[in-house]
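User: Hi! I'm working on a homework problem where we have to compare a predicted structure to a textbook description. Could you give me the structure for the chain below?
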Amino acid sequence: MATPFPLRLGVNIDHVATVRNARGGAYPDPLRAAKIAEDAGADGITAHLREDRRHISDADIDGLMNVLSVPLNFEMAATNEMQAIALRHKPHAVCIVPEKREERTTEGGLEVAREENRLAHFIAPLRDAGCRVSIFIAADKRQIEAAHRIGAQVIELHTGAYCDAFSEGDMATHARELNSLTEMAAFAHDLGLEVHAGHGLTYDTVAPIAALPQVKELNIGHFLIGESIFRGLEPAIAEMRRLMEEARA
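Assistant: Happy to help. Predicted structure tokens:
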């Protein structure tokens, strides 16, 4: 069995902005949430600037680049507008995600294999600017191979189906999804890709993913922001970190 890497936690603050935008104004402030997360031990902050600006805004990205002392993982669609914004800010990491206006949240992994040529040209300037390029994909060998061919340094495995099966009580599907994630994390690592994972993870589902020795980072947002309503953001993050470290040990 591979020796586990130290496991990082990236905290996604998108849904602090969702609450703010529900009423307008400046409260709650995503930048304040980012600094609390940083103080609570987050290794990085994730923010998704959507084309329709439904939560994170351009001003939020400007502010995050100015105040953070941990890396920013800038999630974005593969559009010319988003590429220009990323090249202006040059965040530590850029994660390319699929995006549809009608979806509530990111519904699946990016289709890399069918758009290999376009995506290879799209990410090249980002890599040249010093950004670590990550591709958010399903645990699928064909997509992982394509991500490797186009020059991505990182893949983030979509854990949504695994988490959904658990919440629906479909333990057979849950086990199959975990097996796929396990096999594809090892496959991607053997190709030389850095492996991250995220989407839908909770206290109940994080441990088996955190235990995968090839996974170097988990990105978790919606659950932590929801849990912070009941226990506060710092304690919510501290508990997630505890569960991650317990599983890793």
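For your comparison, note the following. Strands lie at 8-12, 44-48, 72-76, 93-96, 132-137, 154-158, 194-198, 215-220. The mean pLDDT is 94. Good luck with the assignment!
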